């Protein structure tokens, strides 16, 4: 128990985790421990998949990006994330992806947590990648190609190191400054870092290929000839209609694993395929109801788009992790009149005289 922990028992005050406090929490627990714990929460929630209300996220598109709401509930708690995706933002010094989220008690409808989710999204996306790779990557995978060295890249690398045991990352980005930033941040992590000259160079000898680029178009980050037998592809960046990273021919050769097909068919790499192309739902793999990798020569693909249950799991993780810590502030978010029906009176008394 850390000193000066705020009292979370006052139902009208909502615990709020700022970016600064999220960073303190991660340093307090340790990055590997956070990723492991997130992985545990996600796996647990995916195993009780049928208990959740599920819907593809609600997306509002513009020519330069997307703003999305990602809700779900297990009947006891309700969560949602607000998240954007604006690939051109970095040119203006802004993040491509920012997010915040909320957890609420279904019994009362009262929010019980409000938190930043920009860092949390990077952490949960990395945890989800590593969890999928644990079931899909070839045995003894040690080398990962990391294509796209932006905000997510170090988190992806560290999660694959902690959970899958990779010891080498081969970095490639069309912007050399991003690769330098990534290499600098990963120095001292224990990972061997190789700066590559192209995507083709990066995939050389890689057991896992992670694509995590941001561009609102049908891009070809990996062409068919770059993907050899036995590789696991962790495709993160194609997560919107009209935004993909893989040549369609790769999809024809791969066993494809997805989060929630109804959303992935709209947003993922498989938007390039017929709507009835077979895919395996990862919750079934985690629950032991469907196989993961079946042979050493199989090409496996996690067509990641990011699903609401992963954010729900991340919110649950934060709710538990901040207990007994000073890493949140009580937020005066909810009106709390002494008589619940005297909302007007509360307002009037606050003004001292007539209500507004
Ligand atoms: P970012 O803008 O910080 O980094 C993207 C990097 O990709 C940049 O450094 C850019 O130079 C590089 N890039 C662009 N085109 C490239 C190409 N053709 N080859 C090599 N590199 C290229 O973005 P980010 O926050 O790291 O996110 C990356 C992508 O992942 C985004 O598209 C985002 O929407 C997506 N994302 C997905 C999930 C998920 O759950 N699947 C979660 C978070 C982010």
TrEMBL record:
The lineage of its organism: Bacteria, Pseudomonadati, Pseudomonadota, Alphaproteobacteria, Rhodobacterales. Keywords: Lyase. It holds the Pfam family OCD_Mu_crystall. It comes from the Bacteria. Gene3D superfamilies: NAD(P)-binding Rossmann-like Domain, ornithine cyclodeaminase, domain 1. One of its GO terms (molecular function) is lyase activity. The keyword Ribonucleoprotein does not apply. The keyword Lyase applies. Its EC number is 4.3.1.28. It comes from Roseivivax jejudonensis. NCBIfam families: PRK07589.1. This is L-lysine cyclodeaminase.
